[in-house]
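Provenance and format

Records in this collection were gathered into a single text stream. Each protein contributes a sequence line and a token line. The two records reproduced below are adjacent in the stream.
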Amino acid sequence: MPALPSLGGLRDRSRRRNTTAGQPGIAPIPVPVSAYVVDCGVYVEGKRLPGRWTHAEAVEEVRRRREGFVWIGLHEPDEEQIQSIAEIFGLHELAVEDAVHAHQRPKLERYDENLFMVLKTVRYVDHDSPDTANEIVETGEIMAFLGRDFVVTVRHGNHSGLAVVRRELETDPERLAVGPAAVLWAISDHIVDNYLEVTENIEDDIDEMEGKVFAPRGRVSAEQIYLLKREVLELRRAVMPLALPLRRLAEGYTPMVPEEVRSYFRDVDDHLTTVSERVASYDELLNTLVDATLAKITLQQNTDMRKITSWAAIVAVPTAVAGIYGMNFDNMPETHWKYGYPMVIAAILVLCLILYRIFRRNEWL
């Protein structure tokens, strides 16, 4: 059921509490569950029943028919608003708490006859260049409650919508007729496909960064490579922990996932393995780029030090001569000679030129 735009402001106001000293607390404005419901559909024999449904009406219709299932999607619900849904569908309180507060690792848990799965979503943030970007990967979360006759999805983040997944499934009634497990597979497949797309974009960024690092006069800040490495690690935290839940679903962890769906989960697991290998290789490549950048910085510093040392040696010649003849003693060689000053200047220039030629031949200058 699409959320009503006018209820968006109610969400923010419902979170506020009046805590001004001396002023009695004001009860929060009650927000209907529909403010957090993105869509609610009833599916029988793989086809969506017409009409708009509340979560209570939908589950009542399915259980009256004794067939089909309900798929309800929520977006960042409050604890109070999700409580009525949890009571109707029999969701475990610990799983509900995780779904509300988010920031969970990908995992799969079983509570009585229900499953609770957490998946991390990722989005590639467009930017002009990887060496000027502040963010490359944006993450979100999708929590899925799976029961005998329902799927409840809780979404956190603005980039992880499931409308596309729902539309694709609704065009394939045969697959949707399998039940809630087909929805969980479609969500997993959609998220892992996004992983593949993000890794391809990150690979382009790493290739561009690599070209700049190894360019003859390329200058790349080590901080930017560390930023890119941080984004790869963020992607790794989303990808790596998901391998075990997918493998368990593919191997028959629960009878709620029928055999015909397990093969699809095995395919998703294969795709995830590809993503994991790519992410691991990116991490190693970035370590190499960091080492190469630090080596270039060290080499440049050594070159600069050699130049500074060379010029210091050249400057030391006139400094030494000027220091000696600046002592103003009468009995010093050639102090009263007519050509003494020009000869000293000429000797200084010759010695400096000799030193300059020596340093240039040794590639210090």
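Adjacent record:
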Amino acid sequence: MKGICILGATGSIGVSTLDVVARHSDQYRVVALTANGNIEALYQQCLVHKPDYAVVANPANADAFKAKIAGSPIADMTVLAGAEALETVATLDSVDAVMAAIVGAAGLLPTLAAAKAGKTVLLANKEALVMSGQIFMQAIADSGATLLPIDSEHNAIFQCMPAGYATGHTAKQARRILLTASGGPFRQTPIADLDAVTPEQAVAHPKWDMGRKISVDSATMMNKGLELIEACLLFNMDPDAIQVVIHPQSIIHSMVDYVDGSVLAQMGNPDMRTPIAYAMAWPERFDSGVAPLNIFEVKHMDFEQPDLNRFPCLRLAYEAIKAGGIMPTVLNAANEVAVDAFLNERIKFTDIAKVIERGMARFQADSADSLELILRADSQARQVANDIIAELTA
């Protein structure tokens, strides 16, 4: 029986993880669940899964959650509050695996803490790796932790790697990664019309059920840009060896091209329970609850090269990883600020890329070899991004 801590339990990845856990309660026990503000959903999850700990990261909501559980069947559960509590539960002795599913930079410190503690890290938070890069991978190596990717694309690549492969190493026989992307909701929208895109349109992803921030990232293809950076680190590959491929059906989740001409692809219905179950059962497999793929209903599959004029955020991600240093951190921070401004209708959809590009132009690719430098760059980039938004909206 393995103990699991789910960071970001009320988000889509957290909900899917709990669905898989419920199917394999003989193998996994929920030790801790965390949420930021959705205390009603957290309460319902705790009633069902009865964790030892619940963490409400937003202290303003913690008292309301404690009041909610008073007199309930889970009244004796330990409730912690604040960002530091996320690190506490991610490093508990009773926790074997940590599902890192907090969206954005907020997930960096608890995910890094889990890596340093030698846990099996199920990585769904791409920003943690984008921001901390080699520091994160070095923590995995130093502690002997196991790092398993949860993003459908990286999980697919991992499945297509040679037997015995471990993240962070180069598979010498693999010459290229084909990183698939759905293309989002605006793949065929006239570029001139993108200025008028609304938040509601941007979050309406055609294939995947995701949170609002990630859905906007998919619409701009920044999500794929962050995944590109993540893939370089996870699989120790040069960015020029990673080709982004738009595949609107989202049936092939990614491919690995080998030196002998073989191309291995991982396929399946677009359901996050597949990569979650694969990582939780690794190196074995167990049922995920996902329906079998009906290849006859698929009928055909399309592939396109991304248009970088339509998707400038993808171009900026390539530029950031090639520049190195703090530039991926700057890219991520500026994107988070810009997406939030767009979702709150302060800037236009097309302004997201403008904020990021202008923000990156104000930084040099300085060293990112300490957590202090990374966090400082993150803070400074957010301030710069906010200044640029103020200029755009003046």
